[in-house]
């Protein structure tokens, strides 16, 4: 009898000593569960920003506890909390992976849109007076283009009035022949026949160097060379077009695209010099549509003030 009572007292003492430790373990696990549930809600708010902040239907169903078998003791609270923690950790990892995948897809879409905008702009050549795109992203390297000191152009004479069309029965006047040649070359640009357009525009510039259409022809020649990836040649065409005829129809646009080509060739410092040239030369008569385009290009090339 005394031995039995002694065993009971020892059992009670051991149980009393174990209960505080068990309670402490339970509190630690509960804090861990609360932290994971808080992080889970934060991830769900990021993935589903329009949902209810108080509750979100989980994409991963909660782990179903197996039905208790008759005669088998129930699991302890610590074991139940551990199961919840494991399930929450798996769900949190899955949600984090979904967020990373979504961010990656967004970056891919942004890059695709940038390429699409750059490639599509040239195809709208039939809209000659349309807006210009922002500076393109970096492309393979090219040659170095030497730029002169920034100085204003000399005053140029006003362009002569367009000649009157000759009668149908008469031989075409030189001005009419030049206009017909330019329109034929420009038709190749509109048709996106780049090889023929380069040949026709180059032939027009060589044959009619005094035509009022030379500025337009060189501008489209440079744009077509960009489409073919001939950046170094395009840069020289744009540069010569502005230098030889600073008051031409497309002289200002030629400087804009010269800077664009230099950025493509990873020559951003030289592109900034081109933008400085445009700002100084055309300070008083820059086309209104080009002012924001030059400003955006300077920002993209990190030219500073």
Care to describe what's here?
- It is built from 9 helices and no strands.
- The chain starts with a helix and ends in a 5-residue tail after the last helix.
- With 305 residues, the protein is mostly helical.
- 63% of the residues lie in helices and 0% in strands.
- The longest helix is centred in the first third of the chain and has 47 residues, at 77-123.
- The radius of gyration is 37 Å and the shape is elongated.
- The chain has 2 domains: 2-49 and 75-119; 176-300, Alpha Horseshoe (Serine Threonine Protein Phosphatase 5, Tetratricopeptide repeat), CATH 1.25.40.10.
- Helix 5 (214-227) packs antiparallel against helix 6, helix 6 (231-244) packs antiparallel against helix 7 (251-264) and helix 7 packs parallel to helix 9 (290-300).
- The chain has helices at residues 2-47, 77-123, 174-190, 194-207, 214-227, 231-244, 251-264, 268-281, 290-300.
Indicate the mean pLDDT. Answer: 73
- The number of helices is 9
Summing up helix and strand content along with how strands pair, one would put the structural category as: mainly alpha
Helix and strand sequence: HHHHHHHHH
- Detail the poorly predicted runs: 123-144, 148-160
Domain module count: 2
Percent of residues in β-strands: under 5%
Computed over alpha carbons, the radius of gyration is 37 Å
CATH fold category name of the largest domain: Serine Threonine Protein Phosphatase 5, Tetratricopeptide repeat
Give the total of beta strands.
0
Largest sheet: none
CATH class of the largest domain: Mainly Alpha
Estimated helix fraction: 55-70%
What is the CATH architecture assignment of the largest domain?
A: Alpha Horseshoe
Distance between the termini: 99 Å
Shape: elongated
- How would you name the CATH homologous superfamily of the largest domain? Tetratricopeptide repeat domain
